[in-house]
Predict the structure.
Amino acid sequence: MAKAVNQYRADLREIRFRLYEQFHLDELLGQPPFEEWDVEAVDMIIDEVYQFACDKIGPTNRVGDEVGCRLVDGKVITPPGFKEAWDALYEAGYRNVSAPEEHGGAGAPFSVGIATEEFLAGANVAFAMYPGLTVGAAELIAAFGTPEQVGRYVHNMFSGKWAGTMCLTEPHAGSDVGAATTKAIKQPDGTYKIEGTKIFISAGDHDLTENIIHMVLARTEGAPPGTKGLSLFIVPRDKLTGGSNDVTVGGIEHKMGINGSATCVLNFGENGNCVGELVGTEECRGMSQMFRMMNFARIGVGVQGMAVASAAYLAALDYAKERKQGPHVSKWKDPTAPKVPIIQHPDVRRMLIDMKARVEGIRALILKLCAHTDRERLLAGKDDEQAAYHKGQVDLLVPIVKAYSSDQAFRVCETAIQVFGGAGYLRDHPVEQYLRDSKIFSIYEGTNHIQAMDLVGRKLPQRGGAN
Ligand SMILES: Cc1cc2nc3c(=O)[nH]c(=O)nc-3n(C[C@H](O)[C@H](O)[C@H](O)COP(=O)(O)OP(=O)(O)OC[C@H]3O[C@@H](n4cnc5c(N)ncnc54)[C@H](O)[C@@H]3O)c2cc1C
């Protein structure tokens, strides 16, 4: 088994340049709702989370890839070190940097939350999916749940006591989510019996938390076909009163990458005993509600791309400074000339600058989206026209961020292997894992073609084309 050492590195100077010099985060600090935050506090949290990611999460990356998740007696066992990393993450509070204070978060601007999320995803992208999905599910219940549901679930999820998932995909309903056939049958007490199979569910089962709260799209009796007939349900793995809620793991997938993330087949109600709660009070609102979590997750996939691409670039840069091979190009026919680090070769420099440009392009795009999110919050209720403009920019940028970042990340990782030469093809260096991990980014959370359809079919015509 690989040694548990950290191989992750990030470029904090670049991140600060984007935050302050390009997107002027400092102009927002000190103003409501960010009155608790100043430049010093932002710099401190960036330094702290980066150090934490290198110390506590980075060492789990290689081991997580090699050992992967295992299904033992119907339960998923995560790789060595994941449980300790989870506990340390929630004890430090670093997953909730920009979460609302009423839910135990630090209330930082979204830009700061995303800057720190880059470190968690870069240190171990498979591990970071468990807390990422949990925050998304908690925010979904906070936004659309009844006050009782918010009270029952949200705090326990933001605190890391319980985890969360998103359950859309079924064997015949992938990109075509509206083809889902999972059933929700209303019971006299107002709850629903859930029956059906979901596939490819990330973090669908694991040993990191006491319970897992599944957010499940299902169709009530008599509901119309397609996405309009889907409702959203809260389905705990274990009943809150104790005992199984008839959610079983049908299997886990063996994948090309993100091996530390459990990708599960989940069977709901095989014995007719799976109980779900409708989110809110209205049926057939599921797809629009789930879109909140999907938008959040699509930004999250963009961050995954940025994080892994940046890590791959920096690994290649370090290697290029150390590896000596051949003389300088001006003396290339002189066998007695001193050997130089490969970074001095023009073609290696071309590859490095190409990678750097792509990584910085992704980061600029993502932090632009964040800057609009923060300005929308700042202006809400003060200048509604400007707030609507910023919201429109966010809506427009979500599919672009997801698709551009994921496509570019895979290319950057491929170039990183090329910079390493033969060494990059070996497991001794992290770049081959980065390449395998990054391929999924353009597929899940809606393939990049689905993002293109979202951009052209939904986002461009919004607000009469004013976005
Ligand atoms: C590792 C992993 C983790 C995942 N995690 C989750 C999760 O947590 N929760 C969850 O619900 N799902 C999850 N998924 C499922 C994922 O979101 C789907 O795989 C994805 O949406 C694509 O669906 P599909 O695999 O059925 O491909 P298909 O929908 O069959 O698509 C195959 C190809 O056809 C293209 N295509 C499909 N429809 C159209 C169209 N109308 N026009 C043009 N092209 C089209 C697609 O772009 C793609 O290239 C995960 C998948 C994987 C592999």
About this structure: DSSP finds 13 helices and twelve strands in the chain. The domain at 12-70+78-158 is CATH 1.10.540.10 (Butyryl-Coa Dehydrogenase, subunit A; domain 1). Residues 166-169, 174-175, 200-202, 255, 263, 440, 443-447, 449-450 surround flavin-adenine dinucleotide (CB under 6 Å).
